[in-house]
Design goal:
Blueprint: H1 21-31, H2 41-52, E1 56-60, E2 78-81, H3 88-96, H4 142-148, H5 151-154, E3 157-160, H6 163-173, H7 176-181, E4 184-191, H8 194-211, E5 217-224, E6 226-227, H9 240-250, E7 259-265, E8 270-271, H10 275-285, H11 289-304
Parallel strand pairs: 1-3, 3-4, 4-5, 5-7, 6-8
Antiparallel strand pairs: 1-2
Helix pairs in contact: 6-8, 8-9
């Protein structure tokens, strides 16, 4: 390996620099000219975080027209940094504190969460893409790369809104050490019928629990867009869909979580239903804001519980 100073040093098979006295001397001579590299490691780690971390990064599977493509591995995964004005914690606070005398069904902050982040990128100037994460800093020198190459994985939140994209993200894109470095994950899960819950359950087990198993912070957005063909099992208390969704989320208890958010959006409550029947269906099957809050609170409590909870505890029960 050749350092920027022109000194040749040995390289071990895993890509690192061989730890011999001669190598250390070559590195020390090279670093002597860099004020950044002479800083204490904890200070450098903070700098690396501010340069390469602190973002929510949406993983996209879009075609050239910025339209999501499902199930096509020939479409390369891309990314975009989040441009939502509110954080997941802020939306959770609004969700939990919603005035039930004013808000019957939904809060505006939860509606179509992150939809704008999945569209065409902002207007580009001089070839720069302002909503993409820049990793140019990691290519500045070999030592910086060796010290900071895991920071984009440990210090960013990865956001995914498609089960197929989730599986590809964990299976194809990254090495295992990069998967294990990921600490923060945001999933936007849309359910239309029982099958969609089963599909997401399978992908969560395959991608998250088996490959991204070091996630500490989990941000969940649940979109309920029910199909008229299964609306009779979609009420709140004691319904099959409530139980299925509760069991799906309880799978995350296998992760070492220390922070969880869950907000629910059903602004597009039903699709393909005769408008004359909508109001009756809404009154009978749509979760009220209070029921959404109760479900969210129960799920978060179960995922953060130390010592575990029983399979049916709390989820979907009337307060």
């Amino acid at each position: 390996m050749k350092l920027r100073s022109g000194v040749h040093v040995a390289q071990v098979p895993n890509g690192g620099i061989a730890q011999s006295p001669k190598t250390f001397q070559a590195i020390a001579e090279h670093n002597a000219s860099s004020l950044l590299l002479m800083l204490p490691q904890e200070v450098k780690n903070r700098i690396y975080h501010f340069v390469c971390g602190g973002h929510m990064v949406h993983i996209l599977q879009n075609d050239q027209n910025h339209v999501h493509v499902h199930g096509d591995d020939s479409v390369e995964l891309s990314h975009a940094t989040c441009i939502e004005p509110l954080s997941e914690e802020q939306v959770q606070n609004e969700f939990d504190s919603a005035d039930l005398d004013v808000v019957a069904w939904n809060i505006a902050a939860a509606e179509d969460r992150h939809e704008v982040c999945h569209g065409p990128p902002p207007t580009q100037k001089d070839g720069h893409k302002p909503n993409q994460l820049s990793l140019t800093f990691l290519r500045s020198c070999r030592q910086i790369y060796l010290e900071a190459n895991m920071v984009p994985y440990t210090d960013n939140t990865f956001a995914i809104n498609c089960n197929d994209t989730l599986e590809r993200f964990a299976r194809v894109r990254f090495q295992n050490k990069q998967n294990l470095a990921i600490r923060s994950l945001c999933l936007s899960i849309s359910v239309k019928h029982k099958c969609s819950v089963d599909i997401w359950t399978y992908s969560i087990n395959k991608a998250v629990l088996k490959r991204l198993k070091c996630v500490r912070r989990l941000y969940l957005n649940l979109g309920q867009i029910y199909c008229g063909c299964c609306i009779d099992v979609c009420g709140y208390e004691g319904s099959e869909m409530t139980e299925r969704q509760g069991n799906m989320f309880k799978m995350f208890r296998k992760l070492p979580l220390n922070e969880v958010t869950l907000v629910i959006d059903d602004s597009m409550f039903m699709v393909g239903v005769n408008p004359h029947h909508y109001h009756r269906m809404e009154q009978r099957y749509r979760w009220t804001m209070k029921q959404k809050q109760d479900f969210s609170k129960d799920v978060r409590g179960a995922l953060l519980a130390r010592g575990g909870v029983q399979e049916g505890d709390g989820l979907g029960e009337s307060a």
